[in-house]
Amino acid sequence: METITLEDARRVIAAAEEKAAEIGCPMDIAVVDAGGHLKSHVRMDGAFIGSISISINKAYTSIAFQTETKDLAALTQSGQELFGLSDAHGGRLVIFAGGIPLRRGDDIVGAVGVSTGTVDQDQQVAEAGAAAF
Amino acid sequence: METITLEDARRVIAAAEEKAAEIGCPMDIAVVDAGGHLKSHVRMDGAFIGSISISINKAYTSIAFQTETKDLAALTQSGQELFGLSDAHGGRLVIFAGGIPLRRGDDIVGAVGVSTGTVDQDQQVAEAGAAAF
Amino acid sequence: METITLEDARRVIAAAEEKAAEIGCPMDIAVVDAGGHLKSHVRMDGAFIGSISISINKAYTSIAFQTETKDLAALTQSGQELFGLSDAHGGRLVIFAGGIPLRRGDDIVGAVGVSTGTVDQDQQVAEAGAAAF
Amino acid sequence: METITLEDARRVIAAAEEKAAEIGCPMDIAVVDAGGHLKSHVRMDGAFIGSISISINKAYTSIAFQTETKDLAALTQSGQELFGLSDAHGGRLVIFAGGIPLRRGDDIVGAVGVSTGTVDQDQQVAEAGAAAF
Asked: Measuring CA to CA, which residue among A12, A18, A87 is closest to residue A55?
């Protein structure tokens, strides 16, 4: 029942690291499998310890709701219909950019999560990772 | 004291499932007893794993505050008097629609929680479940 | 990426319930998918609320270590090599009988967990459930 | 202060992976820094999802108490002076083999944790990782 191999995860992480280096922002980068469980994580030198769990949780959230985390941002603002979503699941949900599903055909078989930079930087690096999958 | 039977919970879930199928949105559906403890849960095929705990927590929240979760939304927005409520209980509270108390006469004897769709869909399916109680 | 359907889970639960009724011990019964996430749960009338999470965690543990939970009992006693295992994972591991993997050919695609009775009763009911898969 | 670099962590993990492959047991392998925070993790194909947190927690425990986790086993058995230690820290402590500090001169600057095999296998793989540091 492997959905994503370690080799897949490393390819995604390598591409994300390359982009992070290119933009000059060290990152926590995590890849999870289709069940949302950690397959691999790296904390680049200088990336935040506070972003360890956020990178993992961004990837988890992408599996949990089958979506990019950036698409949750608008829906969860005060006054919007999912306001409070991030509080409703034991502190594991992230509702801003940087988590992206990894697809094989029509199936989501894993996800990548990136954290430490601005959300734009996180998203850019996650996209570079996802593109290598 | 049994507050709700498994047969009750199954009748509520069956009605909710039927409505979910009718609107074409697979759901996580949970029923809790008067103490807020899980009586039964189903994750329909295609429903989100992130919605397992949210469906359970919607039902829990309905017991915890003896209310539909939708009625907490206005009170907890930024600037309103209960802003922050959803942070205040270990990640178990849900402040948007989809959780409804189950009443026997004047007593709340259980609750149903539904998650995966839009909040309107969740509420509609939870109402169908509650109506069957 | 469904590994087990709700219909599968219900068949397992129905067989477990039947056995529980036959031996006169109401049970919490949970089925999880290959990722260890809850697919369905029932608490039979009279089963313990303390056993809600234990039934779910027995099924989770069977996925987490690809084993029946009863096979962890001997290894984790004081003086044995895995003593302390149950403390090492945030309170989610169960190291006594009642959790059994569900297999499709060589793959573990889910698991069933049962709790409320003696461990012998829990195991007997879990086996009845697994046999129906 | 960087205590361990990502390059260090990767060298440790690579050596551990090589040993794991040699003995035919896929492993979860984690490296933490001097603060006990995750620097990198890999789950080899076939390693347990239950061992993700156990590998990380073995490395954490090695930092938390500045020791190999195997040295906690005797002290924490039933009847011994630290019986209950593993319960005393929120489910983060591991008291059996597989966690080893990484030393630079007299300082402990990180730790490696390994899980999925027998404790002997875990220890052997962790030692191979530590030796490469």
From this structure: A12
- For helices B119-131 and B6-23, give the axis angle rounded to 10 degrees: 140
Task: Find the helix or strand (DSSP H, E) in which A7 lies.
Answer: helix A6-23
Q: Any chain B CB within 8 A of the CB of A22?
A: no
A91 near B CB under 8 A: yes
| SS3 assignment for D45-70 | CCCCCHHHHHHHHHHHHHHHCCCCCH
Res D98: pLDDT:
98
For position D2, what pLDDT does the model report? 58
Contact B37 C44 (CB under 8 A): no
Please tell me if residue A34 touches chain B, with a CB cutoff of 8 Å: no
Q: In what order do the strands lie in the sheet with C107-115?
A: B99-104, B107-115, B28-33, B38-43, C38-43, C28-33, C107-115, C99-104
- A23-38 mean pLDDT: 98
CATH of span A6-131: 3.30.450.150
Look-up of token digits 């005393």 = D88
**pLDDT-based confidence at residue A2 (cuts at 50, 70, 90):** low
Residue C88 and residue D53 in contact, taking contact as beta carbons nearer than 8 Å: yes
Task: Report the alpha-carbon distance of residue C69 to residue C48 in Å, rounded.
Answer: 19
Nearest to A78 by CA among B75, B78, B85, B86: B78
- ipTM of predicted complex: 0.95
Q: Mutating which of C89, C106, C108 best tests the D interface, going by the most D Cβ atoms within 10 A?
A: C89
Q: Any CB–CB contact under 8 A between D30 and chain C?
A: no
Beta strands in chain C (DSSP E): 28-33, 38-43, 99-104, 107-115
Encode pLDDT of D27-82 as tens digits. Answer: 999 999 999 999 999 999 999 999 999 999 999 999 999 999 999 999 999 999 99
Cβ contacts below 8 Å, chain A against chain D, sum to 42
Q: Where are the alpha helices (DSSP H) in chain B?
A: 6-23, 50-64, 70-73, 119-131
pLDDT digits (tens, 9 = 90+) for C5-39: 999 999 999 999 999 999 999 999 999 999 999 99
Q: Which of B98, B92, B104 is nearest to B20 (CA)?
A: B98
Query: A1 pLDDT exceeds 70?
Result: no
In terms of Cα–Cα distance, which of D107, D106, D99 is closest to D3?
A: D107
